[in-house]
From TrEMBL:
Species of provenance: Psophocarpus tetragonolobus (Winged bean)
A GO CC term attached to the entry: cytoplasm
Protein name (database record): Jasmonic acid-amido synthetase JAR1
Signal sequence, start to end: 1-20
GO molecular function: acid-amino acid ligase activity
Amino acid sequence: MLQFWFPVVFWFSLSNPIPASFESAFVLTVKMLEKVEGFDMERVIEEFERVTKDAERIQRETLKRILEDNASAEYLLNLGLNGRTDPESFKAFVPLVTHQDLEPYINRILDGDDSSVLTGKPITIMSLSSGTTQGKPKYVPWNDELFDTTLQIYYTSFAFRNREFPINNGKALGFIYSSKQFRTKGGVLAGTATTNVFRNPGFRHTMKSIQSPFCSPEEVIFGADFHQSLYCHLLCGLIFREEVRLVSSTFAHSIVYAFRTFEQVWEELCVDIKEGVLNSKITVPSVRTAMSKLLKPDPELANLIHKKCMGLSNWYGLIPELFPNVKYVQGIMTGSMEPYLKKLRHYAGELPLLTSDYGSSEGWIGTNVKPTVPPELATYTVLPQIGYFEFIPLRELEGAMGDTNFLCMDPKPVGLTDVKVGEEYEIVITNPAGLYRYRLGDVVRVMGFHNSAPEIKFVRRSSLLLTINIDKNTEQDLQLAVEAASQLLAEEKLEVVDYTSHIDLSKDPGHYVIFWEINGEASEEVLGGCCNCLDKSFVDAGYTSSRKVNCIGALELRVVRRGTFQKILEHSLTLGAAGSQFKTPRCVGPTNTKVLQILNENVVKNYLSTAFN
Ligand code: AMP
């Protein structure tokens, strides 16, 4: 889900910090937004301290509130809770579920059933999660209560961030994009979670009350064409370059993507600024109108930017060079975003990189209250008032089934305050929008506690990415292998732009395929070395032993044309994804035929590993 610099308006009420229902919290939020300008960081931090000190009680209260608000939901009525709201009964009566289990209910809502299916108050809006793993977006319920939890997360992390890096009423260059909202055949409104946040009246109101902190007008954020909006975001950033205090997006990928694009279009941007005329490739009328209000001929600025770009060495330090008053770069930078950190650091020069918060279309989980910690070491503190959280010990899953892929067993999750430092868990969430004991599919490690609330590190998606025989490799194993092999490329001053993987079973034995897009031409020798290094870097005993006896064939490295991963992004936009919510799938399954086709059509070279010959 989205993290962007959220405007500075204080919304917590200390006299009634946890309102009786999420609805009243939402109403309260909007009222506070209307009345209060200015942001009392210390009060937000005090509130955070209060709830984290009392995490167990707050969890009980949160569960009670969710169950009371939704007591009339058919789903809960059928489970026979009969008004019980304590965690013990909840666990006894309500099963752990996956998205697949809920699909019959979700499909009824999508088809127009406006009764209380999953929630007391019927769901009228759905979020489309990126569905990166399965290759097709998933629908999950959305409501105002989720918007409210979004604000709680944003304000908390903002308070901590702003304490360390005050931005003093500057502007944010936010690479944020709203996807299209559409109606399902049953009339339910659907869009990505980020889109649902942007389109919420509370969000618009917040924007208004602080005179929009983004450089870009709403028309650009809501523009119908991702590429045109990106171009205009860059242009707006340059126009307001002195005022830009932070550069952000939901996920780090979009920031890197934006500045890679800048490398291509910077001269066009300079021409637009010099002449005060928007490039004719921007065709969306509302975007043109909004931009024409901002764009005035400014040859001096155009010359300055031109000079700065010419003076850079391989675009190192581009962000602070363009935006002299920027304080930090912010977006989700952990998990599948880590591979982009190197490039982001290159663009950011000495600027701090701040990872945002941790959440999903299904709901928020944790907030980053230690903004000075580098993304590689970042943790997220779980907010006990935004949902009810359970944790399945990973050892239990692995011990019972031998792998972590098994969803049908009956694991025993522990509560938020019962987790142990150093242990890994799969997260289960209960949210105020109709998900009860929902297995999110993320694995986290507990790194410590803030008061009694755990500080967690995102580890990986729980499903195995690569498995053919007795081998087990996760997205993290793949990332480590790619990092090791790309060291060889770095020696030639080249880098992996993006990567993914696939299990090829078309011949016996099956083998791993790694797709790489590289930013230049590498020699045959180096690429052959990279391929062997990838193969050797999967150190899982199941893999190495299977490779030795040829139960798994030689790993194959397929190098794809420049721009292939952009095509994958474009394909995901056609499925309704928002540009800022895009995550490259790290493994492309056999059912994800379109993405597989894009990759295979763009292969320019392939190599087979000789590492086990
Ligand atoms: P979406 O499907 O677009 O809602 O994306 C949600 C998923 O993105 C989560 O389940 C995580 O796997 C991943 N994600 C979200 N926030 C973070 C984070 N801070 N660090 C790592 N991964 C994250």
